[in-house]
Amino acid sequence: MRNSLCLLLSFSLACTTACTNKLALQASTAKKDVRAVLEEQSICWSRGDLECYMQGYWKSDSLLFIGSRGLTYGWQHTLDNYKRGYPDASAMGQLSFNIKEMRQLSPETMLVVGKWRLNRKVAAGDLEGHFSVIFRKFSDGWRIIADHSS
């Protein structure tokens, strides 16, 4: 009886460890994938390609963007606002992100908090601020579903 109990406890511990390791690996992979989306966005922005940059966002009318002008709903409206605010590559500058925190909220959602910076050569100068974005995992990869940037 005692051996059976020890065997059962050992088996339970092994299963728990295996599940914990699998979840940690999934979280690590998710963070790597989300970082890759942000890196691609930085590259697209820095070459003046807003349509490419916007591929990191959920292409939906339900996309939520919160910025200095308030709430914007929808992928196309968000792109249109970017085009008005950054009419050419010199106004856009070079984008970099400094990720401060990543929290996996569920297997399909991730919160990312950080700083953004635009290095620009135009007279308006450099810009920087903070952001919090929520990513969701779709069949074609991770996309931003909500963005609060200031």
Entry keywords:
150 residues; alpha+beta; six-stranded mixed beta sheet; 4 helices
What does this structure look like?
With 150 residues, the chain is an alpha+beta fold. The chain has four helices and six strands; from the N terminus they run H-H-E-E-H-H-E-E-E-E. It has a six-stranded mixed sheet with strand order 2-1-6-5-4-3, with helices on one face. The mean pLDDT is 89.
Secondary-structure topology with pairs:
Elements: H1 2-46, H2 50-53, E1 64-67, E2 70-73, H3 75-85, H4 89-92, E3 94-106, E4 109-119, E5 127-138, E6 141-149
Parallel strand pairs: 1-6
Antiparallel strand pairs: 1-2, 3-4, 4-5, 5-6
Helix content: 40-55%
What gyration radius follows from the Cα positions, in whole Å? 21 Å
How many H/I helical runs? 4
The description of the largest β-sheet is: 6 strands, mixed
Order of helices and strands: HHEEHHEEEE
Strand content: 35-45%
Extract low-pLDDT stretches.
Answer: none
Distance between the termini: 64 Å
Shape: elongated
What is the β-strand count?
6
Overall pLDDT: 89
Based on secondary structure, the structural category is alpha+beta
- Lateral strand order in the biggest sheet: 2-1-6-5-4-3
